[in-house]
Amino acid sequence: MILDRLATGAGRAARITHTEHLPPRSGTHAIWPDRVRPEVISAIERAGIDHPWAHQAAAAEHALDGESVVIATGTASGKSLAYLAPVLSTLLDGSEAPNGRGATALYLAPTKALAADQRRSVKALAAPLGNAVRPAVYDGDTPVEEREWVRQYANYVLTNPDMLHRGILPSHPRWSSFLRALRFVVIDECHTYRGVFGSHVAQVLRRLRRLCARYGADPVFLLASATAADPAVAAGRLTGLPVVEVSDDASPRGELVFALWEPPLTDLHGEKGAPVRRTATAETADLLTDLTLQGVRSVAFVRSRRGAELISVIAKERLAEVDRSLPKRVAAYRGGYLPEERRALERALHSGELLGLAATTALELGIDVSGLDSVVICGYPGTRASLWQQAGRAGRSGQGALAVLVARDDPLDTYLVHHPEALFRQPVESTVLDPDNPYVLAPHLCAAAAELPLTEADITLFGPAVPELLPQLEAAKLLRRRASGWHWTRRERAADLADIRGGGGRPVQIVEEGTGRLLGTVDAAAAHTAVHEGAVHLHQGRTHLVRKLDLEDSVALVEQAEPPYSTVARDTTAITVLETDTEIPWGQGLLCYGSVEVTNQVVSFLRRKLITGEVLGETKLDLPPRTLRTRAVWWTVTEDQLDAARINPEILGGALHAAEHASIGLLPLFATCDRWDIGGVSVPLHPDTLLPTVFVYDGHPGGAGFAERAFHTARAWLTATREAIASCECEAGCPSCIQSPKCGNGNEPLHKRGAVRLLTELLRTAPVEPDEPTVPKG
Fold this sequence. Notes:
Elements: H1 2-6, E1 16-22, H2 38-46, H3 54-64, E2 69-72, H4 79-95, E3 104-108, H5 112-125, E4 135-137, H6 144-153, E5 156-159, H7 161-168, H8 176-180, E6 182-187, H9 195-214, E7 220-225, H10 231-239, E8 244-246, E9 256-261, E10 265-269, E11 275-277, H11 280-293, E12 298-302, H12 305-322, E13 330-333, H13 339-351, E14 356-359, E15 374-378, H14 384-391, E16 401-406, H15 411-418, H16 421-424, H17 438-451, H18 458-462, H19 466-475, E17 479-482, E18 485-488, E19 508-512, E20 518-522, H20 524-530, E21 536-539, E22 542-550, E23 555-560, E24 565-586, E25 589-609, E26 615-620, E27 626-636, H21 639-644, H22 649-666, E28 678-683, E29 693-698, H23 706-712, H24 714-726, H25 752-764
Parallel strand pairs: 2-7, 2-8, 3-5, 3-6, 4-5, 6-7, 9-16, 12-14, 12-15, 13-14, 15-16, 19-23
Antiparallel strand pairs: 1-9, 10-11, 17-18, 19-20, 21-22, 22-23, 24-25, 25-26, 25-27, 27-29, 28-29
């Protein structure tokens, strides 16, 4: 057994805190609806599939009935075939129509790599249908000379929301024949459209529906999702349409062994003398090395681009010590690579030339990597939906497989590896998005007006916030009202107002100083922390140091170097309450939700040893502050509550700060967010509340729905937070409970026992919400 071999060696077995055995499951077959063309059924059978699974047939039936449908079943359950059968049948019908163009279909994927992979699959499946199905990718990598052919002749166009937003919709007259014939819109991996990105995509889809109606089309939406809570509700919020749900997975599954793995404590000490665990990065690199040596085909999923590069580098070095031919069997894969680099890695993975891959979620999203034996997940990916999506990459051909979750030194990861029921006995999260966020909606109203003048009839389509926003856009001289509706007034492209990935500006280009070669890009919002002067940047296994960050020209100049450390940025944050939407008494204190303004500034960076994480030093930075208007949840405590909790003024700041850190770490259990999507501030006496206050806010303009979810699940969320702190084995606080990797104050002050007493008192008087979710108790 693979896990037994991984567990051999000094102290290895003790790192496994839990092993979950998911038994194999047999499948349930059905027959295709009679409206699926026999030629399509024959092509499917030629691909080796004699009968569909029951959920595939059910989804196809809904699609052919003209009902929008979301297929929310497990990884490798055949979701692609469920929507391809009705799509290919309809395209085949259209190819026989006398009017020339016939029916068309649009496929949307969150990543370019997934669209390219799906084109390969569609082309292979539809080969027996001849020229009836003409699939083509249309994205930023499509050569200019091919784009006209795609517009004129392709009838199955594969793209992403970014290209739909910036390229297709603003140029809709050139796409008129395609849009007029549009019968289906496929939205793959729709669970990834959450938070601000999901809210933007929801408005892009409303613009698409509006233009389709202009050309006389009313396409059916077919959505594919990983297993999710209330998928029909989430899909309806995304598309603005009623959506039927197919979520009963009828496909077979091989046995999956799922291990929870906690790296050991080291002899090193971190900030304030706290004990330090071996890093999840180093542990994952070791596991990927061992799996490669055993000939086990594996992917290690890593949360950050830098982490993927670092794991690849470490694994290559260790493999070279065994056999110099082995390092080429391992590589890194992440966003930010140039198109030709991504395609080469995808081909090597498909062919089996690569045995091990350290990948970001750019590879998580649906690329068919059949034949994988194991998946190593470096740190909890933020949601149970993503965890199962990544784990499901192993065993995709039906064979037994191994998944290992390696815990980071982080409150949530530590909580999960010691509370396996929170992973294996809880439903996946609801997808959180807010299409009515004015920061999201306003630029899309401008983009829609530039495509076609907005009319009163469009108000219902774009949502209830439109009547309030239109006068503001008029006052800002972005829109002008005339008899025919609201018109875009500017010369520049309205679509450029909306950055749908939430980056907040144009990407920063990373350029090699000596050669001028473009290495890649980083989002504008991440530039201050990722490519500040002195930052270590990894690309294709090579380490670079950032020599200069030019914010005006959006360029970071780097040079190749091999420092024995990584870098982590530090920042400071202040917060102002703008408006309190709602508040609930918690004993004498209050739980509140509303609008805030956050001022953030990156002030320094730490240098940490690569393997151990030991802090080597801190360097000051001079970067401008940035302001953010967003949504927040906050709670206050009174003097009487502090007395009851035995919190004196000397430890108050540390108790609040520790509770803030841990609550940020645990919120992803309750909302589909990552701890990096949210921020927090704690103040012993806040000028707006005049009380000790802890804030947790959405890290995106206008909010993303995470703070609102926190407000509605506050009792369960803060109960889990208290449990995570209280159950940690450290004496005074560590990264596993109350220390934060992004704390601008250097994790000072913190008071672990004070935080436990404070949360105990706060929760003692907390009201119970009737719809409150449960959380496992330790």
